[in-house]
Design goal:
There is one protein chain. With 225 residues, the chain is mainly α. It has one domain: MetI-like (MetI-like fold), CATH 1.10.3720. Helices cover 80% and strands 0% of the residues.
Length: 225
């Protein structure tokens, strides 16, 4: 059994999750502080990939980064070609996973008690210190849950990934695209093996999310007492 699809899927999911983590937190932090009208418009823009079909997201990525598009041509001259390369899968996975991280982190930041930040400011603490040492620890359960969900979404991505990087064994193959290709070629036994692998990973991810939610609920009850 060729384990490249598993390795490639984990690599794509991990790298895209790191990108989404920082981008999602930054977007959520600043969006939570915007006026309601502006935040509403920004929400629509940033969460569109969550409601659009993944193939539509992949199509838009091809419009931007296709080898015959201005941006794609410019990147190709610089040695960067997202189409039919595994790191194009990182881009596709990050786009579809970003809304999950953004929405979860924004909810965590909006529930943060701002009096803690004001107290830190009165003590002369810098905004960076308050963010990393006060705000982030207080919101860590929601942020961790968003990170796990984003990783799971990136790991199971198929539509945008298949549109942008296709399926090439040993080069761009992921678990999702491998399942489809094996099924398409009537190799149901091979497809089922990869389905079991995906189910096992998904079960672990859901278990982690449930544990984080239980810890968050327990923390809230402790605070109330």
């Amino acid at each position: 059994m060729d384990w490249y699809p598993l390795w490639n899927s984990l690599r794509i999911a991990a790298i895209s999750c790191v990108l989404v983590f920082f981008l999602g937190i930054a977007a959520a932090y600043y969006a939570a502080r915007l006026p309601r009208a502006v935040k509403g418009v920004l929400d629509v823009v940033l969460t569109l990939p969550m409601v659009l079909p993944p193939t539509v997201c992949g199509y838009f990525l091809l419009l931007l980064f296709g080898t015959k598009r201005p941006l794609g041509i410019w990147l190709s001259r610089s040695g960067i070609k997202f189409v039919m390369n595994w790191y194009g899968g990182v881009l596709a996975a990050a786009v579809v996973a970003f809304p999950l991280m953004y929405r979860t982190a924004r909810g965590a930041f909006e529930s943060f008690d701002e009096t803690l930040a004001y107290a830190g400011q009165t003590l002369g603490l810098s905004n960076s210190y308050i963010f990393w040492r006060i705000r982030m620890p207080a919101c860590r359960q929601g942020i961790l849950a968003g990170t796990v969900l984003a990783f799971a979404r990136a790991l199971g991505e198929y539509g945008a990934t298949s549109m942008l990087i296709g399926y090439t064994p040993g080069k761009t193959a992921t678990i999702s695209t491998t399942v489809y290709q094996l099924w398409r070629t009537n190799d149901e036994a091979g497809a089922f093996r990869w389905v079991l692998v995906n189910l096992a990973i998904s079960a672990v991810v859901l278990l982690i999310v449930n544990l984080l939610e239980d810890r968050q609920k327990a923390g809230r009850k402790a605070v109330r007492k």
